[in-house]
Known about the structure:
alpha+beta
Amino acid sequence: MLLPVVTEPNSILHQKGRDLTKEELQTPAIKKLIKNMTETMYVKDGVGIAAPQVNESIQLCVIGKQFSPINIREDLVLVNPTWTKLSIKKAWDSEGCLSVPFVYGDVKRYVKIKVKALNQHGEPIEFVAQDFPARIVQHEVDHLNGVLFIEKARNLKKIDSEERGL
């Protein structure tokens, strides 16, 4: 089921989501939420989606399988994720967001990070993400902590309807 995407301004996008328990991950409601978030991400042409973007203030996000540093055959579900830098190197790149439609800006992020989280089954996972996948993880974890990319971006630009081909 396609979920409505919350857009700025909305207070839920600026709140830190609460942690999920392993028990909650086994509930039909959370399993359905993960499925629906994944569907919404693909239909909206996103590369990742965080629970606050669908009006759920919890520590849960999904990253599209084509950008998963673990397994490109399945979407990456991260529960209660944290990351640490593995390099001091940062890079600027353009970002956008489903919750800030038609706005893009340059954001400086670490290029190599170590990620720790639970997967959708409540099992601990740990992996290294580099380059674009690292950028996606940092962007989605920011969402879970109430931070939008526009708070970190420079050169913000709104794409008008003519540029969108409308």
